[in-house]
Design brief:
transmembrane; six-stranded mixed β-sheet; 3 domains; four-stranded antiparallel β-sheet; about 35% strand; binds 2-acetamido-2-deoxy-beta-D-glucopyranose; signaling receptor binding; Immunoglobulin-like; Ig_sub; 2 helices; signal; alpha+beta; about 300 residues
């Protein structure tokens, strides 16, 4: 038993051991950042040996020159060769070099900075060391909310997240945080950025407040905004308008009864102007909402 199990145990130990050293020295790290922010790409020798007089070289996707340091000479003090994309945006940490720390900072990150970076010590003894770091840059715009439509069935709300990257998950929530049923999101993609539109139909709640949440798990980012729907006001207009036709009909009947057909003709010539004005003002079920950041007013009330 023992003699058959022993080689297996040794093999497992070897796997675990090499696995940990691999992960520590060469394993890929991941840095996530939102576009426009700064990113620190870590790279440190576990020996913590002084690298002030050494050479290290940062490259992106195996080719673009990001940052090179060679015993005090580097891209920020006149050394040529840096890729245009990184000019003026990358620095090392001078005071960290004596601890074997070759980390760099990329300022004002852009979507095109995303990719796989290597930090190499090509002249290190006894052998060259290479570290891999993946940089994920996301764009996390705020959702735009608006009221599309109001009818007896409810109010149609639209949430739009434009030019987001990576693709966000978009949800409508009630004010207590529960997820509201919504239509299938409409998603379009251009140049790695996504436009997502999500509509839901809501009815009165205790707060009449609704929230749209955009989540980008990949960059650990959540943005949201909320909207107030003034339900009570949307019915006040209707009830006020509804009895006006009744009054008009009553008035016409009254005129016919007291003045005869001649009087009716006189009145009817004056009334159409009034009627067209009344219809234009919008007594129909359709209403336009105007949106200003946190509250919405239905125009007709
Ligand atoms: C290396 O330096 C950077 C910048 O000061 C710092 O954020 C990082 O923690 C340092 N790494 C180590 C292993 O000390
Ligand atoms: C970076 O490398 C990982 C794993 O090796 C790969 O899945 C990913 O697509 C690469 N990213 C880019 C932008 O090339
Ligand atoms: C708005 O409401 C009207 C009538 O209720 C309906 O016909 C129309 O399809 C709605 N529009 C949207 C965008 O939901």
């Amino acid at each position: 038993m023992f003699w058959t199990a022993a080689p297996l145990l040794v093999f497992i130990c070897l796997l675990v051991f090499t696995g940990t050293t691999y992960g520590h020295e060469h394993g890929p790290g991941v840095v996530r950042v939102v576009e426009g922010n700064d990113a620190i790409l870590p790279c440190s020798l576990s020996t913590k040996e002084d690298i002030v007089q050494k050479l290290f070289d940062w490259k992106k996707d195996g080719q673009k020159e990001v940052f090179l340091y060679d015993a005090g000479s580097h891209y920020n003090n006149g050394r040529p060769g840096q890729d245009e994309q990184f000019k003026g945006r990358v620095s090392h940490f001078q005071e960290q070099l004596k601890y074997g720390n070759a980390s760099i900072i990329i300022r004002d990150t852009k979507i095109e900075d995303r990719g796989n970076y290597t930090c190499a010590f090509p002249r290190l003894k006894p052998e060259e060391k290479i570290f891999n770091i993946e940089l994920i840059v996301g764009a996390a715009p705020r959702p735009h909310l608006k009221i599309l439509n109001a009818s007896e069935d409810g109010v149609v709300l639209q949430c739009e997240v434009l030019r987001a990257s990576p693709k966000p998950k978009v949800e409508w929530q009630s004010s207590d945080g529960s997820i509201l049923p919504a239509e299938e999101p409409h998603v379009s993609e251009r140049g790695g950025r996504y436009d997502v539109t999500l509509r839901t139909t809501v009815t009165k709640t205790t707060t009449n407040r609704f929230r749209c949440v955009a989540t980008q798990e990949n960059i650990g980012h959540v943005t949201d905004d909320d909207i107030y729907v003034p339900f009570s006001e949307s019915t006040c207009g209707d009830s006020a308008h509804n009895w006006i036709p009744g009054i008009l009909v009553g008035l016409i009947i009254g005129v016919v009864l007291t003045l005869g057909v001649e009087g009716l003709h006189l009145v009817l010539c004056g009334v159409p102007k009034f009627i067209t004005r009344y219809i234009k003002k919008g007594a129909g079920p359709q209403m336009n909402g105007s949106y200003n950041r946190h509250s919405v007013t239905l125009n007709e009330c």
